[in-house]
């Protein structure tokens, strides 16, 4: 009989304890905030700054030239001869959304012109030069 009285006093708790769920959510958020910058792949270069507007995202091919003049197509290193011979096929495989050329600011102008000329010789006319926007001061 005592059991019946005790259950009458305590009642049934129908609430969900969400404190532990919030802790897990916050932990996952911190993990994603830390790993998101690491997940951004690409070749590490210092882009030149210019008064430019942000590019609208397209699904184009990204060609990167690092400070030593090495050519990378979507993180795959190619020699100039390999690049000139395969750029058209790579661009068509990517869907023809244009080509974005990212060149380090230390790369000589002649090297950039040489790469753009190879693209134009292969029929690629939609080439966007990528730069960092200037700091508004």
UniProtKB/TrEMBL annotation:
GO cellular component: plasma membrane
Gene3D superfamilies on file: 3.30.420.270
Main location per the UniProt record: membrane
Family membership noted in the UniProt record: Belongs to the ExbD/TolR family.
Pfam family, one: ExbD
Name of the protein this chain belongs to: Biopolymer transporter ExbD
A GO molecular-function descriptor: transmembrane transporter activity
Cell location: Cell membrane
Topology in membrane: Single-pass membrane protein; Single-pass type II membrane protein
Entry keyword set: Cell membrane, Membrane, Protein transport, Transmembrane, Transmembrane helix, Transport
UniProt organism field: Gemmatimonas aurantiaca
Single biological process term from Gene Ontology: protein transport
Record has Acyltransferase as a keyword: no
Protein origin, superkingdom: Bacteria
Transmembrane segments annotated in the record for this chain: 21-39
């Amino acid at each position: 009989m005592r059991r019946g009285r005790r259950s009458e006093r305590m009642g049934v708790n129908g609430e969900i304890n969400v404190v532990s769920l919030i802790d897990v959510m916050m932990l996952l958020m911190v993990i994603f905030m830390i790993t998101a910058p690491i997940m951004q792949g690409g070749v590490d270069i210092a882009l030149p700054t210019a008064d430019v507007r942000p590019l609208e995202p397209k699904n184009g091919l990204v060609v990167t030239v690092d400070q030593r003049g090495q050519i990378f197509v979507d993180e795959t290193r190619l020699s100039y001869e390999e690049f000139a011979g395969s750029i058209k096929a790579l661009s068509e495989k990517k869907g023809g959304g244009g080509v974005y050329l990212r060149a380090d600011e230390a790369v000589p102008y002649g090297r950039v012109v040489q790469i753009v000329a190879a693209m134009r010789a292969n029929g690629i006319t939609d080439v966007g030069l990528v730069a960092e926007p200037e700091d508004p001061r």
